Amino acid sequence: MPTGNTDRTSLSRSGLKTAGFFAAMVTLAVVVTLASSALAHPGESRSAGMAAQTTSSPTPARTSTTPAPFVTSPVAPTVAPSAPRRLVTVVGIGDSVTAGSNCDCQTYVELYAADLAHERDLKTSAINLGVASGGTSPQLLKSLTQPGVLRERVAKADILLVTIGANDLYSLVGTWESDGCATTCYSPAVENVGHNIELIVAAARAARSGHPATILVTNYWNVFQDGDVGMAQNGGAFAIWSDILTRAENAEICDGARRAGATCVDLYQPFKGDGSRNPTSLLATDGDHPNSAGHQLIASTLLANTPPQIP
Predict the structure, then answer these.
(1) Are 119 and 310 in contact (CB under 8 A)?
(2) How much is the average pLDDT of 124-151?
(3) In a domain, 100, yes or no
(4) How confident is the model at residue 184 (pLDDT cuts 50, 70, 90)?
């Protein structure tokens, strides 16, 4: 027993019992209180239970000092939207060659538009306004200089294809049969074709109201029948004369086109070379108009003469 002062040692045994009883009761109260706290907050430490009773703001959780691994989500590559392809309107005007007479095939106007779209990565549309029979340069010029469907369509052309002038010389056939129709006979007629070509190109530009267009003017391999059919029906002398006449008109067509700022596309050489090649394989059964192969040749020749830049 610990040594104590006299006051504690002088207590009676009954006093000790009373004090012991009181101490026991205090101890029991403390135990009950602790048990109640544990039951009220199961799984928590005592200090946690005490913290839950405070009214202060909770302390932010500590962050780990070890950085989390850097994770990137896959990102699809950014692809710039492709620019829409430009729409180029191709319009063909002229005579029965343009119209595709006597050939159940696509004409050079449609073939050229398709080839141009493929080569230049463009979107094209084709409008064929060729006259199926008998179209002349004065008639075409008149249609271009007055209101009407032809002028309206030409006004929308980004590329204009022109083939006209062969029918202008048809009246010379009778003159040749009578006296041969030498240079002095046919010169006024072919010069007039060249003059009309110049005016046709100018009228086409005027219809465009100042908006530039690419204008391609073709000449001919022959203004009349050619190949085996032409030789069989007209004879060798006529073939020689028609060849001379064709070369003369071709020169005037190109001069007129160039004076007006258009591009002249020669068809004589592709069809006949230096004049000695037989073009029968490129002609329809009438010997006058191109067949499917002939139209494709015209289209490819036009494509090869198309300027790099289209207005």
Answers:
(1) no
(2) 96
(3) yes
(4) very high
Residue 198: what pLDDT? 98
Nearest to 295 by CA among 103, 99, 107, 93: 107
Q: How confident is the model at residue 81 (pLDDT cuts 50, 70, 90)?
A: low
Task: Report pLDDT for 210.
Answer: 75
Is the pLDDT reported for residue 79 higher than 90? Answer: no
In a domain, 22, yes or no: no
The reply to whether 82 falls in a domain is: no
Q: What is the CATH number of the domain that holds 132?
A: 3.40.50.1110
Residue 74 is predicted with a pLDDT of 53
pTM: 0.74
In a domain, 81, yes or no: no
What tens digit of pLDDT does each residue of 20-55 get?
433 333 333 433 343 334 333 433 333 333 333 333
Dihedral pair phi/psi, residue 125, rounded to 5°: -130, 150
For residues 53-78, give the mean pLDDT.
44
**Considering its fold, how many domains does the chain have in total?**
1
Tell me the three-class secondary structure of 244-260, residue by residue: HHHHHHHHHHHHHHHHC
**What is the extent of the structural domain holding 150?**
87-304
Q: For the residues of the chain, what is the DSSP string, one character each?
A: -----HHHHTS-HHHHHHHHHHHHHHHHHHHHHHHHHHHHSTT--HHHHHHHT--SPPPPPPPPSSPPPP-----PPP-PPPPPPPEEEEEEEESHHHHTTT--S--HHHHHHHHHHHHHT-EEEEEE---SS---HHHHHHHHTSSSHHHHHHTT-SEEEEE--SGGGTTHHHHHHHH---HHHHHHHHHHHHHHHHHHHHHHHHHTTT---EEEEE--S-SS--HHHHHHHHHHHHHHHHHHHHHHHHHHHHHHHHHTTPEEE--HHHHHTTTTS--GGGB-TTSSSB-HHHHHHHHHHHHHTS-SS--
